[in-house]
Design a protein that fits this description.
Helices cover 39% and strands 17% of the residues. With 327 residues, it is an alpha/beta fold. The structure holds ligand PBG and zinc ion (ZN). Ligand PBG is lined by residues 118, 120, 122, 130, 166, 202, 205-206, 274-275.
Length: 327
């Protein structure tokens, strides 16, 4: 008796066929590189909680963009640190604002670089909230929409290829779509940060951009980490208002949400591998507690496996280098 001779299927998968059957692939073209621009000249200072990430002045961007492009990273997202902030975040929609200047500099240096601009006020408001506030400290939704729409239009006028509203106000995608259409940019796509959780993982970004709220928090307009179905409702609203792509942020603790959003709508969905996720890996790696290369590539691959069509990541340069070494 006994069992017939049986060879488990996996034994037939040799090294060659492993390549053929691999379900998920990671490449430099998957990455969107976020970077920080600041006023001044000749500035390139490392963000303390984000080793390997720098705040650079506009004049230093040319070299940086060439480096990225040579690594195969052809999509970037600039974040601005303005020299002055005010109650209404006017630096966000100034035609000579820091991000608008950065977009022009990037396009002048590398015309083929695809520039996606984050649309929000929090880096530009003196109180650090994502919108304008009323006397009681609440965000005034509709007044904020006008300013966000102005911000998006000014970014596109400066040369941005795509805009990505990250503020989470109600109706922002529709307001931005209408404003872009009216300004003569009906073909500029919107990547909506549809699913943005009120998360502890944004800490290092707020150091880098100096945008921590001066009081209160963002829970009134960002999502509760306990909710996944709400994510689908948020994404649906953005789609109805004209979003072309969706974003889930943060990524790592929300891969289930990413998968659900992708499955539900079949829209191109981007993962934001945020600053705190980056800082954790860098800190552990600096201590020799993990193998940075292995962990980074595994993490980014997991985001693609969960359904991401692209990944915003501060690891982009390292990952692109490692991927190039692999082939
Ligand atoms: C602006 C914005 C933030 C991030 C992206 N766009 C800050 C925030 O929401 O507090 C965070 C990205 C990161 O942590 O890397 N609203
Ligand atoms: Zn914001």
């Amino acid at each position: 008796m006994g069992f017939p001779e049986y060879r488990p299927r996996r034994m037939r998968i040799n090294d060659v066929s492993r390549g053929l059957i691999r379900e998920t692939h990671l490449a430099a073209e998957d990455f969107i590189y976020p970077f920080f621009v600041c006023p001044g000249e000749g500035v390139r200072e490392e963000v303390p909680s984000m080793p390997g990430v720098f705040r650079t002045s506009i004049d230093m961007l040319e070299k940086e963009m060439h480096e990225l492009y040579e690594l195969g990273i052809t999509k970037v997202m600039p974040f601005g640190i303005p020299s002055e902030k005010d109650e209404v975040g006017s630096g966000a929609y100034a035609d000579d604002g820091i991000v608008q200047q950065a977009v022009r500099a990037v396009k002048a240096a590398v015309p083929g670089m695809y520039v996606i601009c984050d649309v929000c006020l929090c880096e530009y408001t003196s109180h650090g909230h994502c919108g304008v506030l009323d006397e009681t400290g609440y965000v005034k939704n509709d007044e904020t929409l006008e300013l966000l729409a102005k911000t998006a239009v000014s970014q596109v006028r400066a040369g941005a290829d795509m805009v990505a509203p990250s503020d989470m106000m109600d109706g922002r995608v529709g307001a931005i779509r209408a404003a872009l259409d009216e300004a003569g940019f009906p073909n500029t796509p919107i990547l909506a940060y549809s699913v943005k959780y009120a998360s502890g993982y944004y800490g290092p970004f707020r150091d880098a951009a100096d945008s921590a709220p001066a009081f209160g928090d963002r829970r009134a307009y960002q999502m509760d980490p306990a909710n996944a179905e709400e994510a689908l409702r948020e994404a649906l609203l953005d789609i109805e208002e004209g979003a072309d792509m969706l974003m889930v942020k943060p990524a790592l603790a929300y891969l289930d949400v990413l998968r659900a959003v992708r499955d539900e709508f079949g829209y191109p969905t981007v993962a934001y591998n945020v600053s705190g996720e980056y800082a954790m890996v860098k800190a552990a790696a600096a201590n020799g507690w993990i193998d940075e290369r292995r962990v980074v590539l595994e993490t980014l691959l997991s985001m693609k496996r969960a359904g991401a069509c692209a990944i915003l990541t501060y690891h982009a340069k390292d990952a692109a280098r490692w991927l190039a070494e692999e082939c």
